[in-house]
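Whiteboard transcription, Tuesday session. T.W. wrote the structure tokens on the left side:
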């Protein structure tokens, strides 16, 4: 934990290809369509936390890559996931990013009524439909898995195993931080950036830039930050703080007020940790709080940012102060990362851009790119195929790989 940032992460091989994805993959509309289908619709996405929907009838919604999700707690207390569309004409049965319905979901278009378990209670003017079998017209289910309180959904079956299997190496960490007990500190937030989603992830997937680009993080923990693991599309990064009092106002007061909870294992009491989940999700812990954040592609050049911050159920005044100070540090860091994403994304349209040349400290970027190349082999091509040929070329390369 106390190794210097300049130390080579233990999972990095001695010799590896330091090139990143070619620049064309950040601006191709045709590739964006493939990414929606093969990356975002077929991999686990963080919907929220069970603390966001504590009572029967509470729900969350989220839109991802042409799909609309609804997560709702039923009268029986069970959390379920559905496609957020009425089986009649496809209208949303739940609106807003979060809400509550007392006993049923009512489609705002024609008034079809669904029970909280997704079954169809009844259609408006049922006599106008002839012999309508209600059992055939319930809301369509999504894969949903709860893991230490976090809610994961998937729109279509994909290459990832269950969330429990995927995150098994880090189960002790999530248990130590008592993730299942978390409560929301505010609403789930969203925002947009004028960049390709991969540019956002490239910045977040490495700590090499911390020393230069993030004065507050460097002041807090830059001496100890370490990317420790890259396994099956999951990354884990840890940093300890408190070895210096901090120079910046937020850092100095955070170090002062951050609680040392006795219920936390000693190794976690002064630790910030980040767990990246392919393709674009992150769950992070500090001694007094936790958060998730993620990116979803809106177009080849626009990205939706989404996340939430959670607090301890027995939060003290000291915890609350520390959480606020951590938020101030993260807020400034987020602004800095957004600018870096914009600069990186726009550079790839320049005639001077040739390729990345990655440091050992940026191996997380390489791992993420390799996962994408595995799913979409067309991303391995240095030069862009014609836009109308991208899908065909990708299919041909995938077919070729399957015969080797």
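and on the right, the sequence the group agreed on:
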């Amino acid at each position: 934990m106390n190794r210097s940032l300049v130390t080579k992460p233990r999972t990095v091989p001695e010799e590896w290809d330091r090139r990143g994805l070619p620049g064309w993959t950040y601006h191709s509309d045709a590739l964006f369509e493939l990414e929606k289908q093969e990356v975002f619709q077929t991999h686990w996405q963080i919907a929220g936390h069970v603390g966001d929907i504590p009572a029967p009838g509470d729900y969350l919604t989220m839109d991802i890559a042409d799909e609309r999700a609804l997560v709702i707690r039923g009268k029986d207390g069970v959390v379920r996931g559905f496609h957020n569309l009425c089986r009649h004409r496809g209208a949303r049965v739940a609106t807003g990013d979060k809400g509550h319905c007392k006993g049923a979901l009512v489609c705002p278009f024609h008034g079809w009524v669904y029970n909280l378990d997704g079954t169809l209670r009844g259609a408006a003017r049922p006599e106008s439909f002839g012999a309508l079998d209600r059992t055939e017209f319930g809301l369509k289910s999504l894969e949903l898995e709860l893991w230490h309180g976090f809610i994961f959904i998937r729109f279509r079956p994909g290459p990832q195993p269950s969330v429990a299997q995927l995150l098994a190496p880090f189960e002790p960490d999530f248990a130590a931080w008592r993730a299942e007990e978390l409560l929301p500190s505010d609403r789930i937030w969203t925002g947009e950036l004028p960049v390709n989603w991969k540019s956002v992830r490239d910045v977040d997937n490495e700590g090499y830039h911390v020393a230069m680009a993030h004065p507050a993080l460097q002041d807090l923990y830059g001496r100890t930050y370490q990317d420790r693991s890259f396994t099956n599309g999951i990354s884990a990064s840890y940093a300890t703080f408190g070895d210096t009092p901090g120079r910046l106002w937020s850092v100095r007061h955070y170090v002062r007020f951050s609680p040392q909870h006795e219920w936390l294992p000693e190794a976690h009491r002064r630790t910030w940790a980040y767990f990246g989940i392919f393709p674009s999700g992150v769950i992070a812990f500090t001694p007094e709080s936790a958060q998730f954040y993620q990116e979803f592609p809106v177009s080849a050049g626009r990205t939706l940012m989404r996340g939430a911050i959670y607090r301890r159920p027995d939060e003290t005044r000291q915890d609350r102060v520390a959480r606020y100070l951590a938020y101030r540090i993260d807020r400034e860091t987020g602004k800095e990362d957004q600018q870096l994403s914009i600069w990186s994304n726009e550079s790839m349209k320049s005639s001077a851009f040739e390729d990345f040349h990655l440091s050992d400290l940026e191996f997380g970027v390489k791992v993420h790119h390799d996962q994408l190349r595995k799913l979409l082999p067309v991303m391995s091509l240095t030069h862009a195929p014609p836009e109308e040929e991208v899908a065909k070329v990708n299919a041909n390369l995938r077919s070729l790989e399957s015969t080797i």
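Someone added at the bottom: The chain has two domains: 1-42+170-404, 44-157.
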